[in-house]
Amino acid sequence: MINCKSERELGFMRISGAVTARALARLHDAVRPGATTKEINDLADRLIREGGGIPAFLGYHGFAGSICSSVNDEVVHGIPSGRKLREGELLKIDIGAVVEGWYSDMACTIAVGEVSEAAKRLMRVTEEALYVGIGAVQPGAHVSDIGNAVQTYVERHGYSVVRALVGHGVGTNLHEDPPVPNFGRKGMGPVLEPGMVLAIEPMVNQGGFEVRTLEDKWTVVTTDGKLSAHYEHTVAVRADGFEILTVVDEAEAAALHRRAMNGGTLGATQPPNAAAFG
Predict the structure, then answer these.
(1) What distance in Å separates the CA atoms of residue 184 and residue 190, rounded to the nearest whole number?
(2) Three-state DSSP class for 177?
(3) How far is 103 from 160, CA to CA, in rounded Å?
(4) Spatial separation of the C-alpha atoms in residues 74 and 107, rounded to whole Å
(5) N or C: which end of the chain has fewer CB within 10 A?
(6) Does residue 277 sit within a domain?
């Protein structure tokens, strides 16, 4: 069942979203060659708690981390560990918080030191695809319109979207209805209504869309071993369109709204760092 949130409930979700976004913003500086994913995880845990939240992922179905930390060909759900990051790698951080019983969910891909031009392009296209998908959110549209927009944009640039994993609704549970695929035909699935809240999260592979899960039963990797990127926001459907809830403040919310309305790219009037925390 899809639960539409009231204005009061959306207020709680904005607070939760800000806690998540501010924590993720602080993690960028911690991502550097030699740092371990466990160190980044521990910092995230502390930042979420200092912000008034509880890490949403810790203990979820037995998950051992406060964030998911996935490197290079790891798509999602990587478990933080003593693994040291190396120059040129890509780190995907998926992070969430619970505040007053309300969840928020967010992810981005961060370059470890200097990365290749191919890796930079994959990151850029995936982040742009997120905002293209968000731009498709409006009352009366269908859930599949989001995925169609993402898939069309990604495949136009020569990449593939993961099929085995999808976005989801968010609220008093981390995962709620409806599922939000990053692929599909327009006009399918539930109709978007004001108050629906969705986690939109393109997972984009440099090669094929096929993935597999490692023996730890969590970490999902590309089958062909090629790079993957991941970006995510928690987004509310509003009477006049959409509202991104995982933002540090109103200024960032406005900048990211413009970006989504601008077809995913940075607009001429938008500061270059306005969407840095995708």
Answers:
(1) 13
(2) strand
(3) 29
(4) 14
(5) N
(6) no
Instruction: Please tell me the predicted confidence (pLDDT) of residue 240.
Output: 96
Distances 220 to 2, 55, 214 between C-alpha atoms, Å: 27, 21, 6
Does 178 sit behind a cis peptide bond, omega within 30 degrees of 0 on the bond before it?
yes
Residue 270 in any domain: the answer is no
Q: What percent of the chain has pLDDT over 70?
A: 95
- pLDDT, position 264: 83
Q: Is this model's pTM higher than 0.85 or not? A: yes
pLDDT in tens, 150-164: 999 999 999 999 999
Structural domain including 49 reads: 7-261
- Look up the CATH number of the domain holding residue 173: 3.90.230.10
Cα distances (angstroms) measured from residue 252 to each of 30, 49, 243:
21, 22, 11
d(CA 153, CA 183): 10
Collect all residues with Cβ–Cβ distance below 8 Å to 99 and sequence separation of at least 6.
Answer: 12, 15, 16, 19, 52, 53, 54
Give me the half-sphere count of Cα atoms (radius 13 Å) on the Cβ side of residue 128. 19
Tokens 């500061």 belong to residue: 271
